[in-house]
């Protein structure tokens, strides 16, 4: 155990966050996301007992968001015709605003299948137990000045 490190962050996840460089991306995947098949070229970390909001907050305490792109936080857009509400997105935007001066302006959306394609290029995918639909979020790492 270390001082100042959120307990929800496992040693494996801390190692991955530390290994990542500028512009690398990490996906926090909900329970329905095909983490293992999307992560064939990525490190896949299992965090099945945790929700994304708690992990997102803990990660952003240590992880700078990229300032060289407008929206370093990407959400998976709801497919047309899906009657799904996404209140979790507001939770994410609030968490991002606590850690990045751009607030919710740092958050954008990516069409579902493009999100999958971008996930295949991610450095890591965290498979969570998040139950909310369309709860996937991708973070792009920045630099520590």
UniProtKB/TrEMBL annotation:
Pfam families per UniProt: RbsD_FucU
Keyword Amino-acid biosynthesis found: no
Protein's GO biological process: fucose metabolic process
Top-rank taxon, per record: Bacteria
Keyword tags: Isomerase
InterPro entries given in the database record: RbsD-like_sf, RbsD/FucU_mutarotase, RbsD_FucU
Catalytic reactions of this protein: beta-D-ribopyranose = beta-D-ribofuranose; alpha-L-fucose = beta-L-fucose
Name under which the protein is recorded: Fucose isomerase
Organism from which the protein derives: Blautia liquoris
């Amino acid at each position: 155990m270390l001082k100042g490190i959120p307990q929800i962050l496992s040693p494996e996840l801390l190692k991955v966050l530390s290994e990542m460089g500028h512009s690398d991306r990490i996906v926090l995947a909900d329970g329905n996301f095909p983490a293992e098949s999307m992560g064939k070229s990525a490190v896949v970390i299992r965090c099945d007992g945790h929700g994304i909001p708690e992990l997102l907050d803990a990660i952003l305490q240590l992880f700078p968001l990229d300032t060289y792109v407008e929206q370093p936080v990407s959400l998976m857009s709801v497919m047309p015709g899906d009657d799904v509400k996404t209140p979790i997105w507001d939770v994410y935007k609030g968490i991002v605003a606590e850690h990045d001066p751009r607030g919710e302006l740092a958050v954008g959306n990516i069409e579902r299948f493009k999100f999958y394609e971008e996930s295949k290029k991610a450095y890591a995918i965290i498979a969570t137990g998040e139950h909310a639909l369309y709860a996937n979020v991708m973070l792009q790492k920045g630099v520590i000045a």
